[in-house]
Amino acid sequence: MLLEDENAVVYGAGGSVGGAVARAFAREGARVFLAGRALATLDRVAEEISADGGAADAAEVDALDEQAVDDHADRVASEAGGIDVSFNAITHGDVHGVPLAEMAVEDFVRPVSNAMRTQFLTARAAARHMVPKGSGVIVSITATTGRLAIPQVGGTGVTFDAIESLCRQWACELGPLGVRVVWLQTTGLPEGLHADQFPDYGTGAPMTREQLVAWMTGNTLLGRLTSLIEVGNAAAFLASDLAGATTAAGMNLTCGSVRGR
């Protein structure tokens, strides 16, 4: 198993991405510490992991709250003997469908501010426990929006750019201390799309879920979109020793939507 006997914290583990990554980490042998705002949702993911023979603990944690993040990381490290992997997949409060010229500054800034706060807090909490051991992996997630110019996405693209930049900065400071920092870059994830109506994103008319999936798929080279299983498997690989030479870099899971640098 790729992560046998390792301790992994997953923030936003009750969501579709966080849950998929938590399940993948557990399948690969990690003890998974699920963190999020909705304990009932976390408990369901923990029960699924336990039913499959994995080990999972759930805790209510606001990943935007400095004290809550630090206290939880300290508890995990004390109970489990350390933190080997940290993955952050919390939502940022993005607003789509409004042109920038008409958008309230609060709606534009919110995802950038939330992402920077939570990514910094969770990475710092993990680093403080990883550095003394001289090992550990911090993993984040971004998407095509951070590289492609797409209208009506508000602060989302800037947010993903900022996450990748922050990861590079963490990597240059933590690399000499044995800690790697990496991220996943995905397409839109169909399994996480639950609304019936979506903005036009420059196509000229609002889209249904089916139309949005078809539009996103048409922008790929593989003719399909990233699945949650692929996100989980890629996260497990990046967090493992098999990717031990990788830091300050993202894994391109965009099915060819993003082509090179």
Q: Can you give keywords for this protein?
A:
single chain, 261 residues, alpha/beta, Rossmann fold, two-stranded antiparallel sheet, 7 helices
Q: Tell me the number of helical segments per DSSP (H or I, 4 or more residues long).
A: 7
Order of helices and strands: EHEHEHEHEHEEEHHE
Rg from alpha-carbon coordinates: 18 Å
Portion in beta strands: 15-25%
Helix-strand category: alpha/beta
| Intertermini distance | 32 Å
- Helix proportion range: 40-55%
Looking at CATH, the homologous superfamily is NAD(P)-binding Rossmann-like Domain
The dominant shape is globular
**Count of DSSP strands:** 9
Named at the architecture level, the CATH assignment is: 3-Layer(aba) Sandwich
CATH classification class: Alpha Beta
Strand order in space, largest sheet: 3-2-1-4-5-6-9
Low-pLDDT residue spans:
none
- The overall number of domains is 1
Describe this structure in words.
There is one protein chain. The chain is 41% helix and 18% strand. The chain has a single domain, classed as Rossmann fold (3-Layer(aba) Sandwich), CATH 3.40.50. The strands form two sheets. It has a seven-stranded parallel beta sheet, with helices on both faces. A two-stranded antiparallel sheet has the order 7-8. It is of the alpha/beta class and 261 residues long. It is built from seven helices and nine strands.
Briefly summarize what is shown.
By secondary structure, this protein is α/β, with parallel strands linked by helices. The chain contains seven helices and nine strands; from the N terminus they run βαβαβαβαβαβββααβ.
